[in-house]
Design brief:
The chain has 213 residues and is α/β, with parallel strands linked by helices. The chain is 31% helix and 23% strand. The protein has six helices and eight strands; from the N terminus they run βββαβααβαβαββα. α1 packs across α6 and α3 packs across α4. The chain is globular, with a radius of gyration of 16 Å.
Length: 213
């Protein structure tokens, strides 16, 4: 059986961050995932992964950036987010297992930007914000295409920050949660429940992790 979650505070150059470890009983890798600019680790997709993956030998590290730990409402500039993530990395790598860098929305961008330099084994990008809503010309595709490691994007079918069909060709893998918005909420008319939508997401991530070997 897996052990109980535990929290660990980590001092970074951007302030004090927090990791909530959700350990697997016999882990073979760590998935470190951070939140977006408008929410925390209580996001439905992060909770679903933390519930599902430890049973597959993946310890999940839910990362709270310093601005969230400090109780602030607005995320800082991308450079500051990257600084916080870099400062957390030694703690994430401390178990001595391969670390997959991940996050949702702004957290996905951080993981993409820093993966190669930090030695991440792979990147999981949840709700990657390909562009601001209604501004497709403001593309952030270069961050996604430049990870340098195996990358999985899980995107809602109706995400205003970039629908699956808007993503450019690349060496990454793309999985869709049908009808999902930027937070993977699905409308009742879709016929999907939130539980089913999260099942699609966790199955996609689990299958991809298995394919990494």
């Amino acid at each position: 059986m897996s052990r109980q979650p535990r929290t660990q505070n980590v001092t970074t150059d951007a302030g004090e961050a927090r990791i909530t470890w959700v350990p697997a009983a016999a882990p073979h890798r760590v998935l470190a995932v951070s939140h977006g600019a408008g929410g925390g680790i209580e996001a439905r997709d992060l909770r679903a992964l933390a519930a599902a993956l430890p049973g597959h030998g993946v310890t999940v590290a839910l990362v709270e950036q310093p601005w969230r730990v400090a109780g602030k409402k607005v995320a800082p500039a991308p450079k500051t987010l990257d600084t916080g993530w870099r400062g957390l990395w030694p703690a994430l790598a401390a178990p001595g297992l391969p670390v997959i860098a991940g996050g949702r929305s702004a957290g996905a961008r951080v993981a993409c930007r820093t993966a190669a330099e930090l030695g991440a084994a792979a990147v999981l990008a949840l709700s990657f914000p390909l562009h601001p809503p209604g501004r497709p010309e403001k593309s952030r595709a270069d961050e996604l295409l430049g990870t340098g490691v195996p990358t999985l994007v899980v995107q809602g079918g109706n995400d205003p920050f970039g629908k699956p069909g808007e993503f450019p060709p690349g060496s990454y893998t793309l999985a869709e949660v049908p009808h999902g918005d930027h937070g993977f909420a699905v409308p009742k008319r879709s016929g999907l429940t939130e539980e089913q939508a999260m099942g699609i997401l966790t199955e996609a991530v689990t299958g991809w992790l298995t394919s990494l070997g």
